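Run log, item B.
One chain of 135 residues. Sequence copied directly from the ordering sheet:
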Amino acid sequence: MHNGIDRVADGWSISSMRGTGIGEVVIGRALRLHVGAHGIELHRPAELTTDHGTVAVHASARTNLDHLPHLLDQVVAESRAADAGSLHLRFANGWRLDAPVSCDASGWIVALPGNRFIGSRPGGGLRLPPDLPQA
């Protein structure tokens, strides 16, 4: 484990987010979620799965924004960055937020404590902090 980031079979588990609630949801050109000492920024469309089904959400395209405030106070049960370049959040209530691989741009970034970042690369793959073993 590297400061709450664990290598798993197909990527990285950001275990330091586990048990922490979403403290702030900011909708602007990107969707920003503040999770304790972490920040998540989604630049591309993502999928939000709730009790009522799955919808595409995208801050800058103003797609299904009415669903995003419901993320406030949701407790993160699992956060995982896949080697392929997708990001998956699962909440304690069973909801999920999934950011798929983006073909033409960086789709998301997770700010970690200590000015460290994990992010997606355009077309797939991950940008990792230098202290993590590169996959």
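Observations after the first pass:
- The chain has one domain: 6-127.
- The mean pLDDT is 92.
Flagged for discussion on Thursday.
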